[in-house]
Amino acid sequence: MHTFLQLVVNGVGKGAVYALLALGFVIIFKSTEVINFAHGSLVLFGGYLVVATRDALGWTGAALLGVAGAGLLAVVVERLLLSRSKLADPNSLALLTIGVDVIVTEEIVRRLGVSVPFIGAAWDAKPIQVGGITLFRTHLVAMAVAAVLITAFYLAFKFSNWGVAMRAQAENREAAALMGIRSRGVTMTAWLVAGLLAGVAVLFLATQDFSGAGLSRATHSIALAAFPAAILGGLDSTAGAVVGGLIVGLVEALSAQYISFDFSKSAVFLVMLLVLVIRPSGLFGTREITRV
Amino acid sequence: MSELATRTAVTATPVKAPAKSLRWLKLAAWLAVLVVLLALPLYLQAEWLKAGQWMMTGAVGAIGLTMLVGQAGQLSLAHAFFLLAGGTTYTVLASGTEDGRVVGFGLDPLLSLLIAVAFTALLGLAFAPVSGRLRGIYLGVASLSLVFLGLYFGQSADRLTGGTSTGRTPAPFALFGFTFDSSGSLQILGVPIRQAEKMWYLYLALTVIAFVLARGAVNSRVGRSWRAVRDHEASAAAMGVNVARAKAGAFAVSSAYAGLAGAMTVLWFDILKPDENEFGTYGINVSIAYLAMVIIGGLGSIGGALVGALIVFGLPQVLSLYSTQLGIFTGSGEGAFTPVLVSTFVYGAAIILVVLFEPGGLAAIGRRITGSLHRDRKKEGTLDETAAFPGPRGDADHRRVRHQGG
């Protein structure tokens, strides 16, 4: 029971980070129906900026720069490539993001070379003991940050003008455009927010507490685990992203302990497969209706 | 995916009723290519032949994937898993039991190869409950789970795969007692036929078979049902196409091709070595590389898949062969630009350019060239009216309508 509780705590801590990443997928998908396969490379890019500048700027400055950089790269990709091909359908644009991902990831991995730097943290890395359960500070910070960001996003989505515009566009692109909503602005902000969230997530990903490894190609593949999170929650559901993130975190932690560490990555995907077979559009996703 | 496919993929089917003369011209061109390929071993060094074999391995896999993604409209990132499955099956069946560490059956290599292909087809069929229910990107990500399962299988089933640290050696291929190695003293035109030359002919034969069968499938009733399902599932069902069967069939065929390519991969490396992480010979990056071949070549085009394989798998080979001659890529270690890295950049950029500027891929460019050839001939009045070729722009839609009608 004690181990189980410990695993749940760890799983939720990791799940918070996955939720941040999954939310990024969902925001982009909602506004443009594009799946961003380049999300992992945004994560790597943010992390690389932190590692490259932290000596000069200090951790906080570098972290801010990394988050901003990831957001900026997302906007650049959207403005420079995706917005240029309005005629192409969302699925071919998703293939395009694969091309972006390949290039950015390879370049950053080349720059990293053999070094696998930890991003480090501004907070004390010493774990806290509560009633025999170890709480990693990274997880605590991640949960707090995720809670704040997701709540902020939710409120903005519900009440701000941007949120209304975004929801309108998600509902019906053409109708929204006819109502005077600038799809350009909505799309751009969606990519910006997703990029920023990826930049925040990497601050927790490449640490001892989260993955036990530093920034490398493996970080990119950890970011890939946010795919199942977004999909099993339902690609067009923000609540689904949060639930999906937590499920992925828990499944990973529990299967690593009770089955085997090697299996934990596959377990996440298997759970996703199971959900998809039962509910093809995820737990909270809207069902597609086909008419002839 | 259906929209994607209709927009980007123009089928490899020859346009209905092109002029007879042009069809003969095409056939003659293919034959000329074949003759050149048959003659190459007499002129090329072994390392170039080896590079060519790698491209042919890619071509076989890419032909399978282009049928699935382009013709049947199902996005798959699982190709690497089926490569591993095919390679492992061949190795386990064909290899002997001398090495007590691993399981081997010592079957006839040709039989093993056939069983490996059949087995991967069955594995593809087994994925039908998932592939039948999902579409587009959902299916793409779902199929990614197979790659992770393959990674786990490679690590844990070391009695079969040889384990991630050492791997295991596959039995050399043999056909009715004729072994594809350096033995024997066969000579053609004074050129000794050793392993590289023999393997070249083996790979060429496999590629040609794969190519011809794929063309047949695409041009037949089966291919038509795939395209109908791709364009609109509900309409296809209404027209009497068994959607579930068409989808499952496409996945099985594509997996069988990947299984063959997997066996070719193992024979090429002369070792079966499962990956330690998800970025190896059978990892996500390989799935993406195959997808890149298919996109660059033009979704659904069998000929395009060949060219795509030439670019994605050929470039690193050619670059590394030239690098020793030209003295480029001499850097190593941290931050070096290796041939593989450069090729990755090239195909990443090629994907972006293709999606942005020519959704039909290289196949569409080729079609445009033959199309303009066609029009020139028409001006000369050698062509009948029915063969009118649609203009270079917007021809995709035109042809789609035709397919649906036919």
UniProtKB/TrEMBL annotation, chain A:
Protein name, as recorded: Branched-chain amino acid transport system permease protein
PANTHER family noted in UniProt: ABC TRANSPORTER PERMEASE PROTEIN (PTHR11795:SF450), BRANCHED-CHAIN AMINO ACID TRANSPORT SYSTEM PERMEASE PROTEIN LIVH (PTHR11795)
Organism: Amycolatopsis thermophila
Family the UniProt entry places it in: Belongs to the binding-protein-dependent transport system permease family. LivHM subfamily.
Keyword Cell inner membrane part of the UniProt annotation: no
Compartmental location: Cell membrane
TM segment ranges: 12-29, 34-51, 57-77, 140-157, 188-206, 218-235, 241-260, 267-286
Pfam families: BPD_transp_2
InterPro entries from the UniProt entry: ABC_transp_permease, BCAA_transport_permease
Keywords from the named record: Amino-acid transport, Cell membrane, Membrane, Transmembrane, Transmembrane helix, Transport
Main location: membrane
Protein's UniProt keywords contain Nucleotide-binding: no
Top-rank taxon, per record: Bacteria
Membrane topology classification: Multi-pass membrane protein
UniProtKB/TrEMBL annotation, chain B:
Keyword field: Cell membrane, Membrane, Transmembrane, Transmembrane helix
Subcellular location: Cell membrane
Pfam families noted in UniProt: BPD_transp_2 (PF02653)
Signal peptide: none
Keyword Metal-binding: no
Membrane topology, record value: Multi-pass membrane protein
Predominant location category: membrane
Lineage top rank: taxon: Bacteria
Region of interest (Disordered), residue spans: 376-406
Database matches in InterPro entries: ABC_transp_permease, LivM-like
Positions of transmembrane segments: 27-46, 52-70, 77-97, 109-130, 137-153, 173-193, 200-218, 248-269, 290-316, 336-357
Name this polypeptide is given: Branched-chain amino acid transport system permease protein
Organism expressing this protein natively: Amycolatopsis thermophila
